[in-house]
Amino acid sequence: MGRRNRHSGFGNKEGQDAQPDLEQSQPVEQDEPQAQPEPMQSDEPLEYDAVVADLTQQRDDALGRYQRALADFQNYQRRSLANERAAAVQARAGVLKSLLPVIDNLDLALSQQIEDSGGAKALHAGVQLVRDELLKVCAGHGVERVEPALGDEFDPERHEAMLTMPAPENVQPGHVANLLQPGYAVGTVILRPAKVALAEGEVDPDAIAADNEYELENDEQ
């Protein structure tokens, strides 16, 4: 009987070990995913393309207005600066033009023959010094002398033809044959054109017409 009990006990133990673990074999229940709420559908669909196109047009219009305003302002600045410079040149030219007769008289005095004496030479040197100093002051304000050389082409904007004379050697007809009086200019502003004599011969009619037109403009001013 004791042997039977041992076998019986052994058998019971194996039976216990052979039983499956019910807790481990049971499947784990997972939470079911919650249903997401569906977006509300509008009865009238949004016209995104039309909205974007309208905003783009507004942006382009605003940019165009800005660019035009900027261009107008820059043009205004350039015109204002140019007008200021022109006004400054005209004001300076008016003062400098009034000094030209003084320079002419000094040139005339220096062109006279002087006596061979100490006093006359000293006076001549003094006049020369005053003339040079006056020209130096004028040059500091941008004044330049217009002195065409013999044989230079006649420029109706800077020269004034006073008469004609027989053409010197190597001087073409209608070109400068003699300088009668120097002219003066400040940049492109002519204070006084140089008075010249032209070589005789066939002269370009366009040059004469341009010279006459320039003289009329100066008379009107």
Helix content: 55-70%
The CATH C-level class name of the domain at 144-221: Mainly Beta
Strand fraction = 5-15%
Strand order, biggest sheet? 1-4-5
| CATH homologous superfamily grouping of the domain at 144-221 | Head domain of nucleotide exchange factor GrpE
- The CATH topology label of the domain at 144-221 is Nucleotide Exchange Factor Grpe, Chain A, domain 2
Rounded mean pLDDT score: 79
Radius of gyration: 53 Å
Secondary-structure-based class equals alpha+beta
Helix segment count?
5
- Name the overall outline: elongated
Just name the CATH architecture of the domain at 144-221: Roll
- Largest beta-sheet details: 3 strands, antiparallel
The low-pLDDT segments are: 1-18
Number of strands: 6
Record keyword descriptors for this entry.
single chain, 221 residues, alpha+beta, Nucleotide Exchange Factor Grpe, Chain A, domain 2, 3-stranded antiparallel β-sheet, 3-stranded mixed β-sheet, 5 helices, 6 strands, elongated, disordered N terminus
